[in-house]
Amino acid sequence: MPHVRVAANQRTLETQLTGQAGAESKPFFWLGDTAWELFHRLNREEAIEYLDTRKAQGFNVIQAVALAEFDGLRKPNAYGDLPLVELDPNRLDVTPGNNPKDGAEYDYWDHVDFVIKAAAERGLYIGLLPTWGDKVAHLWGDGPIVFDEKNARACAKTIAERYKNKPNVLWILGGDRPAKYKGNDGKEYDDRPIWRAMAGGIQEAYGEQEVFITYHPWGGENSTTQYIHNEPWLDMNSFQSGHGSREARAWDWVERDLKMTPPKPSLDMEPCYEDHPVNPWDGKWTRQRGYFTAYDVRARIWRGVLAGGCGVTYGHHFIWQFCDPAKQPPINNGDTIIHWRQALKAPAANQLVHLVKLMEYAPFAQLKADNSIILSNNPAEWDKHQQAMLAEDGSFAMVYLPENQAITVDLKKIAGGQKRVQWYDPRTGKTVVAKQQKTQTFTPPKMGRDWVLVVEGAAKKGKS
Predict the structure, then answer these.
(1) Domain tally for the chain?
(2) Using one digit for the tens of pLDDT, what is the confidence trace for 213-223?
(3) pLDDT band at residue 51, thresholds of 50, 70 and 90?
(4) Which of 20, 40, 58, 147 is buried deepest, with most CB atoms within 10 A?
(5) Exposed, middle or buried by CB within 10 Å (0-12, 13-18, 19+), for 314?
(6) Do residues 388 and 336 share a domain?
(7) Residue 464: inside a domain, yes or no?
(8) Under 8 Å CB-to-CB from 188, ≥6 apart: which residues?
């Protein structure tokens, strides 16, 4: 598999095969899935079932955690194995051999090896978190806190030595925790030295090889740009617009991140999870407040991407935890429980491939957010706001409309005389010729709440 790296424009990602003279780089649109408990809770057969499904649905990055969130240091994995000896990050619990039929041989890290290899065989990258953030930060979580600067570097180096020759491994630090914060004890903490040491350990293991490292922060308006943007090891900024409200304006946060210097790509690494109860933490959740739907997911994700995100990570509330009520209680379930196998086929999980296909068809590396092409009123309200992108050469433009209403666009900004204007259905990927209601004004088809208007100029020669 080719390595993932930041493109020359510093806004998008690309892939390139290493060790091949003159190897051509290709744009890479990150469509991730949060499978945080993948290594910890699934056995080999279940992991294959999960990976096969996500591959068929168009995903290309699977985000999973080595030292997992749910008491991952003290609760064994599906084979009864723990990752560390006596909670010591300097002592990975490894045994000779890796025969899965021999429990004495097949250890925790053999299972991680298997899943990473299985992902590579399916063309999937693993966004690998060495640890969830509760093993570092003085905040919520099972923990225990086991990392300091010294052992963080050593542990990360040991894990990275194991996977440095696996080009499908992308490194993600953080694990839902800020780098600088006020702890549960009221004290101020700065964990940047620990994360810096962990990144250093990974880089030391790779030596001269290219390595991609990013960070997964906590939710809301928080972003890596606020505390670690200038860290030389950080290749890509990220934020998690999260599950606290439908009103989260991911598109504004992408725009904020892309204004930073030096420029770095940005994406929403954890938008609202499909079927997640909306803000279940305030003690006031009711079914009227409800769950995030496939529409909520599309409306958040499409606008974040069209604001300039280099990709996005989808998530389902009952996938990240691999919910199986027969084995463990669900987390923040409201009054609905969905087995992870059923959740695999949730509507939005099957719909985001159409976002990928459009981005692969478009001149992705040339696209920039540009709402100036919208001439009609573009409401500021979160549920009505439209988001547009325009190619630098004017050959291609698209606008996501969260509500079914007419829109007027500036066709003069699109290169060439004759334009091809179509409506793209984010639910099905089907296109409908867009008929002008009046000059430069177009009305979406009646069926469906949200639509994407796609305008191609003479310079864009492609397929329907």
Answers:
(1) 2
(2) 999 999 999 99
(3) very high
(4) 40
(5) buried
(6) no
(7) no
(8) 180, 181, 182
